[in-house]
Amino acid sequence: MLGQSEASVVRALGQPKSRTDRDSDYLPVRLTYPGITVLLDEQGVGGLISTDKRFCTPAGVCPGIPLATAKQIYGPAWVTEIVEGSPVGYVYGDGCWLEFSLESGNVQTIELACSP
Description:
Order of helices and strands: HEEEEHEEEE
Number of domains: 2
Oligomer: single chain
Low-confidence stretches: none
Distance between the termini: 16 Å
Helix content: 10-25%
Strand order of the largest sheet: 1-2-3-4-8-7-6-5
Radius of gyration: 14 Å
């Protein structure tokens, strides 16, 4: 889905529950669907936020999965940092990264973002 146009996203997922234009240069358009939010700009999709186990990473990490399982899947690529007092997991790649919010020992949300 990365790089796809807004029209392609709507063709694939249907009309969003909401469409928001934020006052930001970085991915100002937000298309909200049940379980997933798509972030894009004029160049296409540059980010995704998953809150539902139907929307997982290609490696198979989904919201709700135990933290230990996510760490096992990503191995040494997994980095845990404390952000505003809460643990956050990261996996960095070529210009993109995965950010995992964690709660009660489980992955709560997954955000995929890429550098502009």
